[in-house]
Amino acid sequence: MAAKFENDWNEILTEEMQKDYYQTIRRRLNYEYNNYTIYPDMYDIFNALHYTAFKDTKICIIGQDPYHGEGQAHGLAFSVKEDVKIPPSLLNIYKELEDDLGIKPKDNGCLTGWAKQGVLLLNAVLTVRANKPASHKNLGWEEFTDNIIKMLNEREDPIVFILWGNFAISKKELITNPVHLVLTSPHPSPYSANRGFFGSKPFSKANDFLISVGKEPVDFSK
Questions:
Q1: Strand partners, 154
Q2: What is the 8-class DSSP label of residue 132?
Q3: Cα–Cα distance, 207 to 222 (Å, whole number)
Q4: Is the peptide bond before 40 cis (omega within 30 degrees of 0)?
Q5: How many CB atoms lie under 10 A from the CB of residue 16?
Q6: Catalytic one among 65, 100, 107, 208?
Q7: Res. 110 pLDDT band, cuts 50 70 90
Q8: Minimal CA–CA distance to 125: which of 108, 138, 111, 112?
Q9: What element of type H or E holds 204?
Q10: Over the stretch 15-26, which tens digit does the pLDDT of each residue have?
Q11: Does 8 qualify as catalytic in the annotation?
């Protein structure tokens, strides 16, 4: 559970990871991993930060907590490993992507190609017990990830924050810097996608904004 990043998060988060609340998370996680089946694998918990450096973050998509089915979660919000069936919410994300940018859905649900281009796929809660959604809701992760969002907010280099669903939209209060773009819509879950997620065009809006501030757009086909 001790994390060392091969990018600028290492220095940025050193002090954060020494705080009492974070040490409490570590102790609780040791117990959880020793006594229950926890997702993702402990070596994948911080993959969002491993793949996307602070300085490279162009887009931040905020999720709630990891997939709780076997083999699904691998540390990136909404993403699953290549050999895992694509979950319903991600199928709807792909559907909107095709409608928005004409990009045909991939045959897998692995979004590391986005992450490597600067899309920070950040879950608010980074771990979960098998088959028990939101089971680590009160473990302490929210304080850690809220502080990451605040650090990104303080950047003067513009970022697009994409907030899908009420939970993610609740994080909007942390994003106060006017240089950033905040896009909100209902969640891509089958229960809510028809209420305004479909047709919201987050991908073209994000890329248009990136281009307007002199950044390379993200190739969402990767």
A1: none
A2: B
A3: 15
A4: yes
A5: 15
A6: 65
A7: very high
A8: 138
A9: helix 202-212
A10: 999 999 999 999
A11: no
